[in-house]
Design brief:
Length: about 210
């Protein structure tokens, strides 16, 4: 089956990031913005759940088309659809594959889950009993994990092994400064890592990234 046919037969999905931190830093906001814009462009939904009412949502995320900010948890929002929720979990026994686009409608990710080296805070979601799938052995940022998942189950319906990646790329902050990112990224047609647009005012610190562990 061609990728065009596969894409036609797959309905839009819901991508959910359960925000597991009391704060939301500038680097996280950049990643969430990227997820919202890309997800909206494909006709799907992006929900940021378990957001504390006291959390100060950054200005660039307020009113952003494609972003739904919820105080409810994923369990509350999709209580009657639990069997349709897939948790992206590095300890899962099965890898994500194109057929999961037929089996699941909601793909769940943890937000701000750890540092480099990673810590297993996905366990907070694992304990809720969602069926899991893994994205491979390398740590990814949350926007990369959503992008990879969408590519497999919705956009192109390709296998994880066929997705082009780069590990630990140098991220150019400006013409004078760069920073090595200790994660795996998808690459574009020019073999460049797909990352949020950055500037000197958005330096990527070790603990502010939205990291899928």
């Amino acid at each position: 089956m061609s990728s065009t046919t596969a894409q036609t037969n797959i309905s839009p999905k819901i991508y959910v990031v359960e925000h597991l931190d009391p704060e939301l830093g500038p680097w996280s906001a950049l990643e969430y913005r990227s997820i919202a814009e890309e997800t909206n462009a494909t006709g799907s939904r992006f929900c940021l759940t378990s957001v504390s009412p006291s959390l100060q949502v950054p200005q660039e995320l307020r009113g952003l088309r494609g972003l739904e900010i919820k105080v409810e948890s994923v369990e509350q929002l999709f209580a009657t659809e639990k069997e349709k929720v897939c948790l992206l979990d590095p300890t899962a026994s099965k890898e994500l594959n194109p057929n999961d686009g037929d089996n699941f409608d909601i793909f769940l990710f943890g937000g701000i889950l750890g540092d480099d080296p990673p810590r297993d805070r996905t366990s907070e979601l694992r304990r809720k009993g969602f069926e899991g799938r893994r994205l491979g052995p390398k740590q990814m940022t949350t926007d990369t994990a959503v992008r990879v998942t969408r590519t497999v189950v919705q956009d192109k319906a390709v296998a994880l092994a066929d997705i082009p990646y780069i590990d630990h790329p140098e991220l150019q902050i400006d013409e004078h400064e760069s920073s090595e990112m200790p994660f795996r990224y998808m690459t574009d047609r020019n073999n460049q890592p797909i990352t949020p647009e950055v500037s000197r005012s958005f330096r990527p610190p070790n603990t502010d990234g939205c990291i899928v562990t």
